[in-house]
Structure formats: structure tokens, C-alpha cells
Amino acid sequence: MTATVLTARALLLDMDGTLVNSDAVVERIWRRWSERHGLDGDEVMKVVHGRQGHASMAVLLPDRPVKQNLADNARMLAEETADVEGVVEVPGAAAFLASLQGLPHALVTSADVALSTVRMAAARLPLPAVRVTAESVGASKPDPEGFLKGAAELGIAPADCLVFEDSGAGIAAGRAAGMRVVGVGARARVHGPDVVVRDLTEVRVEAVADGSMRVTVSGS
């Protein structure tokens, strides 16, 4: 296993699949939705990771009115927020977040405020002070808006930001924002991030005297 050293001035962190393993809930909710709409659950699961729910619905049911997708999404968000069974931290997430205290970083998630708060609490992880949630943006990942907004709120140029993501939509969003991307987990590998780690135990962050961060990843 080789180590890669990256330098950044801010880290932008996805939540689901990156900090929090919520796959069990996502599978339950979306497979039920698939059955209701007569869709293949396996095919649906290839689409939904990383996107806001209504954006996934627009891909899966392209002829359905936006208003109906938004209403359906609101119901599903309520279901997801009420269901935290099996929600745990991605290995190394707590130590990783602890290492970022006092350093510029933000949560950039397709979840809304309620869902992100509940899931981070279920995984016993602290919420970063700067958070970009579904309510904060007009376009879902793979649009870069969320990551660009996170960079702007931290006052850091996009090129100096390092994204941590697990999904194809999220990795595409980071790239479209002009940022380098660390892929987290097996799902990330096929989407071409700059480097991939199995989980966050393979990441070490150190502050540098000039105000930047040295990020050492022992992935591939």
C-alpha cells in the first residue's frame, strides 16, 4: 500500500458513505419506494447514492412532474429521519473529525438539516460548524453548487479544497467544482477520484505552519 500526501487549505466532507454508514437505511427506504413504483431495486440503488431524493426520482421517473417528486421526497426524508437502525460511523470518522478541530472544514451533504443532524448523532459524530445541506442549494450533486458554496463560506479558493466523497454523483460534483477528490470506500473506486481509501482510518491530517493542511492517505 502506497502513501499519498496532498496539501489543502480546507476539507469538504460528504456525510452518507463518507462519515456515516447509512447504507442499511438507504436500502430499506429506496427498495420500498422501488416496489411501490414497479422498478428494479438493484437498478435504483445504482442511482440514488449522493443525490437529493427528488433528483434521483427525476432520473428514475423522468416523465413524472417535479412537484410530485418534491412531495414524495419530503415523505421519504421523514421516513429516513425516523429510521436510524444500523446507522454507524465509517471506521475512523470520529478520530478524523477530531483531527480537524480548529482547521477549515465543512459538511457538504445532500441530506437536509434534520436528517444530517439525526444521522451524525446516531453515529456519535460531531457536526462541523460549517454545513451545506439540501436547504442551502438550488441544485443537487452532481452539480458543484454545494461544494462551491462550502468553499465560499470557508473563504477558501476551490482549487485549495480537498473533497471527501463516496458516490459517483458526489465525486463528479467535486471535480466540476475544480477540486481534488479523495474517494472513500469501494463504491468510490469506479468513479475516478484522485485517490481512494478503504475508510477514514487510512487518512491522517496535520496542520502546517503556513495555514495549510498536510493530508496523508494510505489508500491507492
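Second entry:
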Amino acid sequence: MDDRAMESAAELFDGMGAEYERAFVKLPGQLAALDWLTGRLPAGARVLDVGSGTGRPVAETLVRAGYEVTGIDVSAAMVELARAQVPGARFEQQDVRDYRPPAGGFDAVCAFFPLLVMGRDEVGESLLRIADWLVPGGYFVMATVPADIADVEVEWMGRRVRVSSYSTDEYLRRLREDCGLEVLFHSTSTFQPESEIAGPEDHLFCYARRPAG
């Protein structure tokens, strides 16, 4: 029997640091999403990066595009690394489940894979919270591993974690019906991280918008 301890999200990413960046920094779907978003936001837009990790490539790309960027992450090690690598953004050790946004909200929110290592009800609640932080007309760009699972124990990059998610159809339904967002684009693909201890992953990318009216 494997007696390694199950890791929380904070413990998981505290232990990974730059290893995560090396494995995922060239993720095509993420780079395409950033290109799509930066083609729509005006200079000076306020953008929140949920699960900001090392700051690369998301916060770094957004800062270079001229946006006011805030990154939140549960990992103290990731926040420290991001502050060093992307000094033009603001990073806070915060959990999406209890984060309080500044007055005025955000013109866009990015959430690339931060909703996996939590309970399934918390995934849905986090989507509702994020949608509420968007200004009218604001954009939400997200990625996750789509699956109809709740609190399933898996091994990921040599570490044991408990994950939850929804199917692609259920994610789209929740974004449209529960969160009141307009889904502008979605796609699924398979990605092999640049790591010898990581297997291929199915990814869902979704771009959505809060109605302006």
C-alpha cells in the first residue's frame, strides 16, 4: 500500500516551484487563450490571474500587454517566485474560495487549472464567485481537466492529490446558466507536459464574457 500523504493544493505547489513552469510554460492552448484575450482588452485593463503560479507565462504576458495585473495563489513558494520573476504584477497568497476583490472588479479573470484540487461543490462556488468579479462586458478565460469526478485520488507529477471536476458539457452549462456568462469559445485537446513524470492530459479551454447590459 502506498503510504505517501495526500497533499493539499498549497503543499503540492509549494513543493513544485519552477518544476511546474518548466512542464507547462509552452502549453499551446494557454498561449492561444492569452493571445485571444490581449487582442480584446484595452491598455490599463484590470486583470486577475487565479492560481498565478510562478507568474509565467500568464501574468508576465499580461503585464507586457500593458494591463494592471493581480495574481492570487494558495502557495507561498509560488507567490514568492512570481514576485521575483514578474515584478510588474501584484501577487498575493490568497485562495479563490475566500478572496475579496477590490472595489470595481476586474475587466478579465484568468483561471488556468486552479479549480481541480478542491471539493466538487467548491468548484461550482468558485465559478460563481469569479463571474461576480467581472465588470459588465468583462472576460473570463479558463482551463481545466474535464471529467465527471468528485474527490478522486490521483497521482500527478509524482505526487498524490485529491481532485474534482465536471464534464465539458456540465462546465458549459454552469457557465451559461448558473454564472450567466456568454460562452464565446471552447475546445478540448490533449497535452503532454515537458516532464518525465507526467503523462498526457485532456484539457478544456473556455472563453466567456459577462453580458454588457
